[in-house]
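Repro case for the chain-ordering regression, as requested:
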Amino acid sequence: MQSRTPTPRASGRPRSAEADAAILAATREALVELGWSKLTLGDVATRAGVAKTTLYRRWAGKNELVVDAVAELFDELRLPDRGSLAADIEGVVLQFAAILDRPEAKSGLMAAIAESTRDDALRERIRDSIVDRQKCLVLEGRARAQRRGELAPEPDPTESARTADLIFDVVAGAVVHRTLVSGRPADAEWVRAFTALLLGGLGADAGGRPQDDGPAGGAPLTASS
Amino acid sequence: MQSRTPTPRASGRPRSAEADAAILAATREALVELGWSKLTLGDVATRAGVAKTTLYRRWAGKNELVVDAVAELFDELRLPDRGSLAADIEGVVLQFAAILDRPEAKSGLMAAIAESTRDDALRERIRDSIVDRQKCLVLEGRARAQRRGELAPEPDPTESARTADLIFDVVAGAVVHRTLVSGRPADAEWVRAFTALLLGGLGADAGGRPQDDGPAGGAPLTASS
DNA sequence: GTGGTTTCGCTACGAGTCGTAGCGTAATGG
DNA sequence: CCATTACGCTACGACTCGTAGCGAAACCAC
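-- result from build under test --
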């Protein structure tokens, strides 16, 4: 999952799985305390209780290590069936926002994406371990909505994939931008307004109510501004 | 604009404005060739033809320098009146996408945002020199659409500001995510589909036509995939 | 001109990090 | 028992960082 399979290993001492977990946990810990730029592999090794050389034997560099460490945060993303498209969107967006609100995700993920603009292999790694997993949720939620009759079925698979990509960029991008660039929390109130905008567009009433009345329950309005 | 006014300077040798321009240009050049992580201030100084100490006298560190260098790229953002809300959105989004497509913007801006999660002063700097300038375009375009009658006027200023923030996060976030994370160009075809989604929502036909027929004129479809 | 002030270019420096090599040891399979 | 692989540890040259110190240059006020 994390380090690429080095060889079809036949015999010899196996790599310690505990060391892997300790290293990834230490990486997240260092991300929280130091951030991306001040994070050093030597410090991570010390925190994890392993030798620095062990790190370099498993990961090519800081980029790959941080991607793997952050990717584990997104494993908990689920898409429970809440009965309506609006409720499903709100649920998964709130989960996504909660993960992105963690300091290790903020600094680590964004820096890794920045580095991936000049490293195709890193971009591939991010896509495989993080992005594609999120995109599956979009496909699943869209299929559910189509089964419910909330969305018109899309027979053309090419057009369907294009639309799914678009939705994914809009949803993930909006949450990321809200959390990291605007620096404000994607709380229940924001998620509700965003869902309304996504479903109804700018022409509809984007302020108050989605198409059914109480999707997110009685969540308290945490006034941000 | 870039370096904070150090003192209410009275007399003495003035700072070379040409050096400022040369340093920022050299920073962008180094961002293109080296990316964020391998960019060193010593290298930038050499490229700009100034001493390394001059850099440290004007900027606190790599973060601030890169933010100022990238901010200049966004100065060219304009919002020409194209006659309809859909056309206005498509126009400004295409401009934004063109800037983000530059390699110096990709690596520099994202890395700076990543660092800003642990540096409030840097976040403020990014907001002042980059983000707020983009948000003004949202406000302007929205006001135009309300004057045209395409959008319902929003009397409550608090709610209006909230909605503008939401729109801004959705638009900017979607373009950034498309360009950097998905790694695909936000070309005319994508922008058209995005505009349709933004205006009509998921319930409407998000594939082909916005609410008026030909918003972007006869722009050729640059088939990407 | 003269003096005061600030900037600039240059050199040098200690501190810290990088990524690797080398060595002996531990853990597995045949 | 032996081959193979992973591990911990040390040490190393190379590089970057950010700063200090110096003399020279550019500007203003007088």
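Ordering looks correct now. The longest helix of chain B spans residues 120-148.
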